[in-house]
């Protein structure tokens, strides 16, 4: 009888270990799928933001209003599952935790303020996924020369 009980306990332990291993694999698959879903969603929201920026720079009020509504609708859908895009406000102080600079742009000694948001940042269920990509003002509250030239070039291309 004792041998049978021991054998049954060993069998149950093996089954429990196998079930735990299977559940770990399923959790890993779900985490990978979630990461892929987040990447796809962020890319789509980035494209929507780029459309919104283009509309804003066009100066056409009807187009701006339509794309603003479209962007808000897309962001609301993303918020329902915990993905929240955020943009820095112009003249907002630079925060290294929430903002990222363009390559080659150095942070001014006084911290600097944001001139514009080039790409939105994202949080997922309260956790920062990506900081917002920003361009800074120079120390006088104006855009740096390179930033101003780049903005002028983009505006003339439209």
Summarize the structure.
The protein contains 3 helices and 6 strands; from the N terminus they run H-H-E-E-E-E-E-E-H.
Radius of gyration: 25 Å
Strand order of the largest sheet: 1-4-5
Residue windows where pLDDT falls under 50 for at least 5 positions: 140-158
Give the helix tally: 3
Sheet of most strands: 3 strands, antiparallel
What is the first-to-last residue Cα distance?
86 Å
H/E topology pattern: HHEEEEEEH
Tell me the overall shape. elongated
Integer average pLDDT: 84
Helix content: 55-70%
Number of domain modules? 2
- Determine the structural class based on helices, strands and strand pairing: alpha+beta
Strand content: 15-25%
Number of strands: 6
Would you write up a description of this structure?
- With 158 residues, the protein is of the alpha+beta class.
- The protein folds into 2 domains: 81 residues; 75 residues, no CATH class.
- It has 3 helices and 6 strands, in the order ααββββββα.
- Helix 1 runs antiparallel to helix 2.
- The longest helix is centred in the first third of the chain and has 57 residues.
- The C terminus is likely disordered.
Q: What key attributes describe this structure?
A:
16% strand; 3-stranded antiparallel sheet; 2 domains; alpha+beta; 3-stranded mixed sheet; 3 helices; 158 residues
Per-chain topology:
Blueprint: H1 2-58, H2 61-80, E1 83-86, E2 99-101, E3 114-119, E4 121-124, E5 127-130, E6 132-136, H3 145-157
Parallel strand pairs: 2-6
Antiparallel strand pairs: 1-4, 3-6, 4-5
Helix pairs in contact: 1-2
């Amino acid at each position: 009888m004792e041998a049978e009980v021991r054998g049954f306990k060993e069998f149950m332990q093996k089954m429990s270990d196998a079930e735990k291993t299977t559940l770990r694999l399923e959790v890993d698959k779900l985490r990978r799928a979630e990461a892929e879903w987040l990447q796809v969603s962020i890319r789509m929201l980035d494209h929507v933001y780029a459309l919104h920026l283009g509309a804003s720079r066009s100066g056409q009020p009807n187009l701006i209003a339509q794309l603003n509504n479209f962007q808000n609708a897309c962001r609301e859908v993303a918020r329902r599952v915990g993905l929240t895009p955020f943009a820095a406000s112009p003249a907002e102080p630079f925060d290294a935790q929430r903002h990222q600079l363009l390559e080659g742009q150095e942070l001014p000694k006084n911290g600097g303020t944001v001139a514009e948001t080039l790409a939105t940042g994202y949080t997922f269920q309260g956790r920062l996924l990506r900081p917002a990509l920003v361009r800074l003002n120079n120390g006088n509250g104006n855009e740096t020369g390179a930033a101003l030239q780049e903005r002028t070039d983009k505006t003339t291309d439209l």
